[in-house]
């Protein structure tokens, strides 16, 4: 149970990180719309998105150590290692040659990796409600991945830089919101389950108050009173005859 709590806290951290990176949607597209600020917007986006990819992939690799499923752990580690390698490669080797539309492909890959991980987690989950949630998340991630693949290979050449920034940072906002919402939901469900099971166990350990209630003394009914009166009269008659 402790590992699961750590896993969902790590997922929550990933969601907050994506929300923080996606908040650049409020100013980067406007910068990209200006010819003077366009190079700065592109450079900032490349650095910010590459940094986000490295940190997020580190969280993914860390979360692989917190799951019991070997298959899920393998998928998370593979996703984490590939993400870190791509981020470091962008920083160290091809920074000056990076084109912003490449991140549409990275967003698609991340979404499709999320799709695979959610399917694996759903197969390892025994709760029906959680399984439905995982399959829903997988479906949303798959749709995002397909849309961004189409954008990258069919429309990247005609999209303006500001529009590409809107798609990328909009995806990060949606992804971060969903990750944070999923983590909060799972943490709340786990906390509620612990409270319920803890209260049930303490209730079972306490002696039942029903058994502790003292039974009232038996009060004779009408038949009992009649029998007592009859017995008293017989005793009186016998004693008088004896005298």
Q: What string, H for helix and E for strand, traces the elements in order?
A: HHHHHHHHH
Rounded to an integer, what's the Rg over CA atoms? 35 Å
Biggest sheet record: none
What general outline do the C-alpha atoms trace?
Answer: elongated
What brief labels describe this structure?
243 residues; mainly alpha; disordered C terminus; 81% helix; elongated; 0% strand
Q: What would your notes on this structure say?
A:
The chain is an all-alpha fold and 243 residues long. The protein has one domain (2-190). 81% of the residues lie in helices and 0% in strands. The protein is built from 9 helices and no strands. The protein has helices spanning 2-22, 28-32, 38-63, 70-92, 102-124, 128-155, 161-205, 209-212, 222-242. The radius of gyration is 35 Å and the shape is elongated. The chain starts with a helix and ends with a helix. The relative contact order is 0.13.
What's this entry about, in short?
This protein has helices at residues 2-22, 28-32, 38-63, 70-92, 102-124, 128-155, 161-205, 209-212, 222-242. With 243 residues, the protein is an all-alpha fold.
Summarize the SSE layout with pairings:
Elements: H1 2-22, H2 28-32, H3 38-63, H4 70-92, H5 102-124, H6 128-155, H7 161-205, H8 209-212, H9 222-242
